[in-house]
Amino acid sequence: MEKKEFQSESKRLLDLMINSIYTNKDIFLRELISNSSDALDKLYYRSLTDDKINVEKEDLEINLSFDKDKRLLTISDNGIGMTKEELESNLGIIAKSGSLSFKENMTKDEKIDIIGQFGVGFYSSFMVSDKITVITKSIDSKKAYQWESEGVDGYTISETKKDSIGTDIILHIKEDDEEFDYCKYLEEYELKNLVKKYSDYIRFPIKMECTHHELKDEEKHEYEDRKEIEILNSMIPIWKKNKSELKEEDYDNFYMDKFSDYDKPLKVIHSSVEGMTSYKSLLFIPSHAPYDFYTQEYEKGLALYSNGVMIMEKCGDLLPDYFSFVKGIVDSEDLSLNISRELLQESQSLKIISKNIESKIRKELETMLKDDRENYVSFFKTFGVQLKYGVYNNYGMDKDKLKDLVMFYSSKHERLITLKEYVDEMGDKQDNIYYASGSSIDKIKNLPQVEQVKDKDYDILFLTDYVDEFCITALQEYEKKKFMNVSDGGLDLDSEEEKEEVKKVNEDNSDLLKDMNKLLDEVSEVRFSNKLKTHPVCLTTKGDVSIEMQKVFDAMPNDMGIKAQTVLEVNEKHPISKKLMTLYKKKDKTEFENYTKILYSEARIIAGLPIDNPTEISKLICDVLSK
Ligand code: ADP
Predict the structure, then answer these.
(1) Where residue 323 falls among pLDDT bands split at 50, 70, 90?
(2) CA 263 to ligand 1 center in whole angstroms
(3) Closest protein CA for atom 13 of ligand 1
């Protein structure tokens, strides 16, 4: 029989599993039960949509059995099963491993993090077993197949016999060692506990043959062991239970299991809505972004159930894009079971539910911002980009819903604040909401343009996310206060006298400025200004596109040719201005041009823009320094 190799990254992950650095080994069972439950759901759903498949819901079940002597633990289901191809693609590689980069010499925490990111899954069984056999027969196949693996070396797939549709997962449990008693997974009592703890809500019965130690003869003190099949779980889906029955831990366990997260959720929103359309929903805001959140593969959506039966694993229509990080479940009796997915999208009930859910999440976030700021800030640091994106997406259609949920870093408070907080603190003299953007807080702090605004004691919003300026451009204003970029050439904080003074300097030197501009054809204007206190030069912009926005456009794969209109501003009070004027008067053309080039390069460096001719500039600087 041919032995196949695991994909190399899967191998390394397996290696981590086998050497089980993950402390909570118990979870392997909930992962397998959860897979079985999904397989049962899939089969039942198929039976509803395909007349040729007849399945009674009552017959669907999961069975646990164990053999202590042979050290075998078996998890069986009569779900949809797997074809040979599915076995290969589902268990041959770890589906998500391609998106993961393994580092050499990972710390223990990083390893645990990696395992967590995978949602552990089927492979977690290698934490407790040294050999795994999967015997499965798919509803779509006449033949049954066996998959077997002892870990990193690879796996084999061969044909086998199996009468009924479904899957048996047979684990050969590891020998006990100094660190761990693996034999506990071969104990009735332990298994019962684990199912109760992690898989109680599974809607299909999880059955196991249990031993009842019964008193047979009271006088003689004789006992008898009687075997009986028991259902280990209560089978009531957690979202159908009353809030009062549930503890935080129940929600957390359910969330971690269902959505394969190793961390508890940041927020749980459990609601039951009665009305034209009735439904129950259980929503979670994760405490960190899923590993694939910012990739194309990430699919938003909530699991959709119709009276306890899953119709769709991820119904995207239930969530707007800006809340795509929300995970959860919606269960409604008003949705017909055998409705096709296309018709479902058109369903009025679904539209009502999705509208309600959107506003529910929004209200919960508003409350969190008001009452639990620390958690909100943590949430915002993780998913804020999504909200800001929501502000400008769809031509700003949703901006009013989101504008009070976005936060920006305040130069005065040195932390995130809301726009409302900014505006409430504005004095009478201040007309605009000032902002500055750059790649980091520190870099923005040192921008020459920031100094002048700070001097007036105005707060400045520091924008470091690439979406920030687009968000602000879409908002245009907040409570009638316009946003103003401190790097905008039109920034006007001067008194009338100051303005007159600069105007004169510019007029008197118009030829000099024109010649500088001729040399720097990229900039739309060169001018003297008094907005720079200590710095010699800076780059500002005219029009709607700022330098930071241009950087975002430049980074896009399809160059749209959108360019910022830049202005080189030279500090009129800085000695360098006098120097320029002197050189110009002396008609020292080369020297004047060299100074111009160096100054422009400085301005570009400060703005975080690349220099096209670094070697030339470096030489010019050294020439000047050597004089
Ligand atoms: P996940 O469940 O997160 O997708 P797993 O590694 O646990 O990842 O499982 C991989 C895939 O193998 C599942 O998505 C499913 O298609 C298939 N699978 C696992 N267990 C079963 C089962 N008992 N019956 C049918 N298919 C299964």
Answers:
(1) very high
(2) 21
(3) 90
